[in-house]
Design brief:
By secondary structure, the protein is mainly beta. The chain is built from one helix and ten strands, in the order αββββββββββ.
Length: 216
C-alpha cells in the first residue's frame, strides 16, 4: 500500500513540475517597461520675447512695452542647468510732463527708452520639464530726452550701461520647444544731456517678460 501511495505522489509531482517551471520562467524573465528618457536642456537655443517695464520712481515714471529676440546656450550636469543668454528689444518705455516756466510759457519734457537689452548668466535646477533659475549680468538701454517750448523742440539721446538681476521659470511643452516667464530689475547709470545742462540720476526699471524658445 505504501508503495502505491509513493508512486501516486511521484506521478503527480512529475505532472505539475513542467507547469510550475514554465510559470517560474515567465515570472523571472518578464521585462520591466522602459522608462522615458529625461529631457535635456543642454545646447543652443533662439527665441522671441516681449514684456512690460516701469521705472522705479515716484514722479515722471516711465512705463511701456518692449519686444525682441533671445539667443543662448545651456550646459547641464544632472539636474543643474547653467548657461549664457543675450536679448535685445525695441521699446516704447516713456513718460512726459508739462509745466509753465517763465519766460518760455508751457514747456513739455519727455523721456523715452526706445531699445534695451541684456547679456546674462543663468543657473537653475531642472525638475524634468520645468526649469527654475536665477539670472544676472550686463544691461543696456538707449534713452532719448526731448524738450519743447514756444514751438521749438530739441532732443538728446544717450546710450546707458548698467546691470540686471532676476529670476524665472521655463517649461518644455513640446520636443525642442519651451516657454518662459521672468522678472528682471535693471539699473542704468545717470547721464548729462544737452551738453551737461540737464544731468539725470540712475534709471531703474522693473520688467516682466514672457518668451518662446526653440532648442537645437
Amino acid at each position: 500500500m505504501k508503495k502505491v501511495l509513493l508512486a501516486t505522489v511521484a506521478v503527480a509531482a512529475l505532472g505539475t513540475a513542467p507547469a510550475f517551471a514554465a510559470d517560474l520562467a515567465a515570472k523571472t524573465y518578464t521585462k520591466a517597461p522602459a522608462l522615458a528618457p529625461l529631457p535635456t536642456w543642454a545646447g543652443f537655443y533662439i527665441g522671441g520675447m516681449g514684456g512690460y517695464a516701469s521705472e522705479d520712481a515716484d514722479i515722471f515714471a516711465m512705463k511701456g512695452g518692449f519686444a525682441g529676440g533671445t539667443i543662448g546656450y545651456n550646459w547641464q550636469a544632472a539636474n543643474i542647468v547653467y548657461g549664457l543668454e543675450a536679448d535685445a528689444a525695441w521699446a516704447d518705455i516713456s513718460a512726459s510732463a508739462s509745466a509753465t516756466v517763465a519766460p518760455f510759457g508751457l514747456v513739455t519734457a519727455s523721456s523715452k527708452v526706445d531699445s534695451t537689452g541684456t547679456v546674462r548668466g543663468r543657473i537653475g535646477y531642472a525638475f524634468n520639464t520645468v526649469l527654475l533659475y536665477g539670472t544676472g549680468g550686463y544691461a543696456w538701454a538707449n534713452n532719448k530726452i526731448s524738450l519743447s517750448a514756444l514751438g521749438v523742440s530739441v532732443s538728446d539721446e544717450k546710450f546707458l550701461s548698467g546691470w540686471t538681476a532676476g529670476a524665472g521659470v521655463e517649461v518644455m511643452f513640446a520636443p525642442k520647444w519651451s516657454v518662459k516667464a521672468e522678472y528682471l530689475y535693471k539699473s542704468f547709470e545717470g547721464k548729462s544731456y544737452f551738453s551737461g545742462a540737464l544731468p539725470t540720476g540712475d534709471l531703474n526699471l522693473h520688467s516682466v517678460q514672457v518668451g518662446v524658445n526653440y532648442h537645437f
